[in-house]
Each structure stands twice: as C-alpha cells, then as structure tokens.
Amino acid sequence: MRFLSGGEADERDAAAQLIQADVYLGTLSAGQLLELWPERRAVSAAQVASAREAWAAFRGEDPRVLAALAAAGDHELPMLAPALQRVLEELPGTGAGLARTERQLLEAVAGGAQTPVEAFLASQAREQALSLGDLHAFGRIDELAGGERRLLDAAGGRLRLTADGEAVLAGAADRVALIGFDRWLGGLHLSADAGLWRWDPARGLPVRDGTR
Question: What phi and psi values does residue 2 have, to the nearest 5 degrees?
C-alpha cells in the first residue's frame, strides 16, 4: 500500500469524474448507465471536501456528527445525506434494540420467508438503495439465530421466529438485553457493555443508553 502525498491526492481528485442522477445508480441497468455516461462531470473541490467530511464522520466515534450531516443535506452530493441516514439506521433501535436490517429480516420471516435467501430478498425489496450484500445479511441471520436466547430458529435450514423473536418484533422485549450487541459501525464500537448508542426513529437522532 502506498500513501499519496498532498500534491498527488489533489492531482488524483482533479482527474476524477462523477455521474449524478436523481436515482441510485446501483438500481440501473447497464444500458441506463451507458446513457448517463455523457453526463459525467469533473469532481469539484467542494464535492471532494464534502466526501472527506462525511468519511471523517463515519470513521469517528460520535454518531451525532453523522446525524448532523444527514440532516443538513448536501447539494454538492445529493445522495450523501440519505446514505448517511441509512448508516445511522443500523444502530440498534430504541425500545426493541433492532437495527433496521435486523427488523426487516425478522419481519420477512414473520411474513413467510423460510430460507436465508428468501429473507434477504424480502429485506432488499424494502430498500431504496441496494446497500447490503447477501453474505452480510446471512451473517446477521446467523447472529440472530445463535445463543441460548436466539430470536430465530434455523433448524433444518428453515427459518422461524422463536418466542423471544416474536416478543422483540412486537416491541415487548429488547434484543440487546436478550442476546447482547457487539458490532462496529465505521469507527464506532457498539457494545452493550459500554453505553450503547441507539437510533431513535421518532426523533431521527442517535441517543445513548442512560440519556434522554
């Protein structure tokens, strides 16, 4: 790995080009992407600054910085704010303690999905942008199906909600209290043992356990 000097980094940024559209590029076909190719523009200094600010916030330990950037929006990179918002939704939620992906997977199983693939596809269908790969989703399913107080039963390769899973999905139990939480989100280590940050969807803010 070679680190770029300041001058080299500036030169690389100046040569970069960007395609922006009103939809997420990941949802477009190859033909649609080719149609947008003539619309590419050189990346501006303001766009580079916005991207660096967001990357620094993502690597940081305070999700409130990400929330502030998401709330402010960015006309230079209009897709940045919703992307940051989606990152924040992977914090364990207030109340039931489920990250958005976990809730979608559990709701998929409750709705009839019987295999990890079916649960993954049902979860993806609820995303505006395709931000999660299948292996990532399968890892989440394994986590929810592990331990003594698991939320999913995967016996025989078929998924079903356990009684604890049903309680969490109904908001009558806390996923964190039942099976813990230990995960990295960018530069933030989320641990049930250390003042866990959670996402409050009603207020659209990250809050820390023990605070209001």
Answer: -120, 130
